[in-house]
User: Fold this.
Amino acid sequence: MLAAEEAPAVDDGKIQIPYRPRPHFRALHATTKRWIFCCSHRRAGKTVAISNHLIRAGSLNPRKWPPPRYGYVGPSFEQAKDLVWAYLKQYTENIPGTRYLEGELCCILPTGAIIKLYGGAAAYERMRGMYFDGIALDEYPLLNPAVFSTVVRPCLADYGGFAIVSGTSNGDDHFNQLRIKTENDPRWDQFIIPLSSTGEDALSQAEAKELTQDMSPDEYAREMECAFDAPVEGSYYGEILNTLAQQGRICSVPVDLAAPVITAWDLGIHDYCCIWLYQIAGKEIHFIDYIQGSGKGLDFYAQELRLRAKKGGFVYKCHCLPHDIETREISTGAARRLYLEEHLDEPIIVAPFSAVEDGIAAARGLLGLSWFDLVHTKQGVSMLRGYRRNKMGNPVHGPEPYSHGADAYRTFACTFHMVGGLSARGSGRLRRKIRGIM
Assistant:
């Protein structure tokens, strides 16, 4: 089963259907993994892609008996009937011999394969005890958290069936927990498709810009940028990051081997330690990497920095540490600054003490000049998105990690004027621009 843009002439025995995969879903259609996790922004075309994935699987399944069976599970019967059923008929009407059982929302392909739609908890409970060759769980945040493990997974055991778990971010819920669980599982393929990665293939830039005006920063982050950690309200940097994403500044940021790398830290003894790696490129600040860990000693981070420099072929200029670097470790009595001076080859710059509000203001100004590598700073950008104020208007600190990544960025902002590295003319222009933003 081929897409319309790739379909050969009809006389070679292949069938052409009116489906042209959007570029951001081609990798999903091409995967050979049995388990698929897909989070895409609204209006990306997810449901159309899933419907056609099931159609292709049913058309290519050679088994005659028992007939191959595929299922689509949505949050409600109405959603399955009004939306998915129309897609299913639209994309199979050119396949001779296809039959439709309207009352059962069931499509029978000429190969004998069955595609049936299920909506709501009562419907997918009826799937228990049945076999399936493939199941799509769409709008998973709206489904019962146990539907995959207790209903769907056993149904796929007989014939090694596949599953697609898809939806749009709804914050830190069971959909996010599945994402975290499967992120490093080699059996799973993950597809995270934010609006900033689809360009004009999904929505025009004008429409994307208008969405930022009509949605709250946190709504836009979740619904359009697939941010699982966007808080419900109070994000310090969420609106700016949405603007950067819309401008294409969260993207592939190559390392400039002619420019040194600077690091900015937030130090944790018993909790998180976070490090931003960045370069100054004329009037721009390029964040090329991010390190985060907990329960590890300073020797681990010193070694990690050396390994990344060796792998990337770059050199460091200096390391910027927060003002509490002089604090001594209770267990050893050793000053952390002294330790790092012995284990890092480059100079250490200590951030001056400043009020948290002033540091946040400086960080907001510098965000307007920043570019972030989509892959290597993904975790750090998530920390910035999640940093928020509480109902009293004060920054939320711990036990969640967001404040630590944001504090490392604040270290960068408070030491930026100290690191040099620009020509006198370029430095002056950049700092005047920062003052204008702040």
Q: What stands out?
A: The two ends are 55 Å apart (CA to CA). Residues 1-12, 421-438 have pLDDT under 50 and may be disordered. Residues 260 and 316 are 5 Å apart (CA to CA).
